[in-house]
Design brief:
single chain, 11 helices, alpha/beta, TIM Barrel, 333 residues
Length: 333
């Protein structure tokens, strides 16, 4: 039984591998974008994180511009811009400028979390008010800034007006599902680190979706961890890099992306293992045949419109191979 072809995309947090400089991590980001573009991936999104020495994705719009410069046709966007950290006008000007230089290739995924700890969030904030609560209004403001001239108020984004930069709502809880549904926007759920509310969020979004000028029916993207290899055994071993990444998160430690290990149980306690594995529980892991079976089971249950893959794999060639295998499976080959 084969899967119906499904569009697939890539999310990159731009991690620094051990031994790499930040510049080399950015070069690796571009190389991966070029490779997945050749494979036929639909979009390539870059995350926003701050005060994290192991990730270089703080100035997201600059990395997006750099990726657009070095690719030809793949859609490039933010996964996401964390809106509480930015004035909507500045975001509209930045993305409007990129849309002017690279028409029909730029996308704007928006999140309401700060993408960092609270002390750093306070250093980033544009006001002392909690701008997390103005997220719905800020999204609406951005839709207006990118819209037609006759719908603008006095303050306008130049360039930006009339660029119609596509906006996506990102979420890791059910709140964003309600918002994406009410605005009639596409919705992207972060199952790659927060799978707990995925099923509920998908249901809410689909049930409450209101058609809009942007979208006539729900468009559901789910972001998943994908570790594909020639054999299940190799994929299991490669996945220990991802497990160490999530152990970092659990411990609040700041290790760069690390090579695979033989035995994770030597590194984590049972409680750490449980916490790390709960964050990465929605992972497609294995050989091509196993990935195919897992994708089929996932789609029978959720039938999403698109899957965005994150692959924390230490060896860049094995990472590219993982994306290659996944694309073949997604294409039904």
């Amino acid at each position: 039984m084969s899967t119906n072809p499904i569009p697939v995309s890539v999310l990159n947090l731009v991690p620094i591998r051990i031994g790499q400089t930040p510049k080399q991590a950015i070069e690796a980001m571009v190389e991966l974008a070029q490779e997945v573009e050749k494979m036929g991936y639909k979009r390539y999104w870059i995350a926003e994180h701050h005060n994290t020495p192991t990730l270089v994705s703080s100035a997201t719009s600059i990395l997006i511009k750099h990726t657009l410069e070095n690719t030809e046709r793949i859609l490039v966007g933010s996964g996401g811009i964390m809106l509480p950290n930015h004035a909507p006008l500045v975001v509209a000007e930045q993305f409007g400028t990129m849309a002017t230089i690279y028409p029909d290739r730029i996308e704007l995924g928006l999140g309401r979390a700060p993408g960092t700890d609270m002390m750093t969030a306070n250093a980033l904030r544009r006001s002392k008010n909690d701008s997390v609560f103005t997220f719905p209004e800020d999204v609406q403001t951005l839709l207006t800034y990118f819209g037609p001239q006759d719908q603008q108020s006095y303050v306008k984004a130049f360039p930006g007006v009339g660029t119609n930069v596509p906006i996506y709502i990102l979420g890791s809880s059910t709140d964003s599902a309600y918002l994406a549904a009410s605005l009639g926007l596409p919705y992207v759920f972060a199952s790659h680190f927060a799978p707990r509310f995925m099923e509920e969020a998908i249901s809410i979004y689909r049930e409450r979706f209101q058609p809009s000028q942007y979208l006539d029916k729900p468009y559901m993207i789910v972001c998943l961890n994908v570790i594909a290899a020639e054999t299940d055994h190799e994929a299991e071993k490669l996945s220990t890099t991802m497990q160490q990444f999530f152990l970092n998160v659990v411990r609040g430690s700041q290790n760069p992306l690390l090579p695979p290990v033989e035995n994770m149980d030597e590194l984590w306690s049972p409680m750490e293992k449980e916490m790390a594995e709960s964050m990465s529980s929605v992972t497609l892991l294995g050989s091509k045949k196993t990935i195919h079976q897992k994708l089929l089971a996932f789609q029978e249950k959720y039938n999403v419109d698109e899957i965005m893959a994150v692959s924390y794999i230490f060896d860049p060639d094995k990472q590219k191979r993982s994306y290659e295998i996944f694309k073949e499976v997604a294409d039904g080959k």
